[in-house]
């Protein structure tokens, strides 16, 4: 028997999505972390699950309470989905476009979110909502706080796929200076605790072609909303 058949190689280990690779992490706040490449071993399970969610709840552009059309396309899965229209931001149990419940959160989504939260020091993360954002070149997310959730004790887990983007990470006031954090395919940002209500956003997406996802960036943000 060859020696490489006796012990698992590094590749064998990493091929199993249940065995998480040691991602390099970068602290961007007291309780905020970027886990570089953390989602990569999960990709082959994530993308088919994403396609299935999008069949039931396709991306759509929503209107802000101020009357602006968001440049980002939105969808959701899980018990609650984040929506906006002229009357405000909120979480709903049904997709306003179909009046059907939002698609179930795929098991692989939940497992990835929990593994990332744990790796960042947040055990027992139980997300009930996954907002799915699609950025095409030029699309952006203005500085905002995530504050439509009922309980801020849970962290947020944010997965980046496809084209890179610059994440703006500000402070507790809109006017606070922001750091610029580049986010790449497979990176996961986990933040919570004292950082949970910090302002953040995404600069206009640069043109490009991603080998797997084409000319777009997909972002999942997992939250405990209800
Ligand atoms: C995005 N993310 O990365 C937008 N919110 O496309 C967010 O708005 C966000 O990444 C809360 C926590 C992490 C995030
Ligand atoms: Fe946000």
UniProtKB/TrEMBL annotation:
InterPro entries: Alkb, AlkB-like, AlkB-like_sf, Oxoglu/Fe-dep_dioxygenase_dom. Fe cation binds at residues 144, 146, 200. Coiled coil: none annotated. Binds 1 Fe(2+) ion per subunit. It holds the Pfam family 2OG-FeII_Oxy_2. Residues 126-226 form the Fe2OG dioxygenase domain. Transmembrane segments: none annotated. Its EC number is 1.14.11.33. It is an enzyme of class 1 (oxidoreductase). Keywords: Dioxygenase, Iron, Metal-binding, Oxidoreductase. Signal peptide: none annotated. NCBIfam families: PRK15401.1 (NF011930). This is Alpha-ketoglutarate-dependent dioxygenase AlkB. The lineage of its organism: Bacteria, Pseudomonadati, Pseudomonadota, Gammaproteobacteria, Pseudomonadales.
């Amino acid at each position: 028997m060859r020696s490489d058949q006796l012990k698992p190689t590094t590749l064998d280990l990493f091929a199993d999505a249940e065995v998480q690779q040691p991602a390099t992490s970068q602290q961007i706040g007291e309780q905020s972390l970027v886990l570089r490449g953390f989602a990569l071993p999960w990709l082959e399970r994530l993308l088919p699950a994403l396609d299935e969610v999008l069949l039931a709840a396709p991306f759509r552009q929503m209107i802000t309470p101020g009357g602006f059309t968001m440049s980002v396309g939105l969808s959701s899965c899980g018990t609650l989905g984040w929506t906006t229209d002229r009357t405000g931001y909120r979480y709903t149990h049904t997709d306003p476009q179909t009046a059907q419940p939002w698609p179930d959160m795929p098991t692989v989504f939940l497992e990835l979110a929990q593994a990332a939260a744990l790796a960042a020091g947040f055990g027992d993360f139980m997300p009930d909502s996954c907002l799915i954002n699609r950025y095409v070149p030029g699309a952006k997310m203005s500085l905002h706080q995530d504050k439509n959730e009922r309980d801020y004790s849970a962290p947020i887990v944010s997965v980046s796929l496809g084209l890179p983007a610059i994440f703006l990470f500000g402070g507790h006031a809109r006017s606070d200076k922001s750091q610029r954090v580049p986010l790449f395919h497979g990176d996961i940002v986990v933040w919570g605790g004292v950082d949970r209500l910090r302002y953040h956003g995404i600069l206009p997406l640069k043109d490009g072609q991603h080998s797997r996802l084409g000319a777009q960036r997909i972002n999942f943000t997992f939250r405990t909303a209800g």
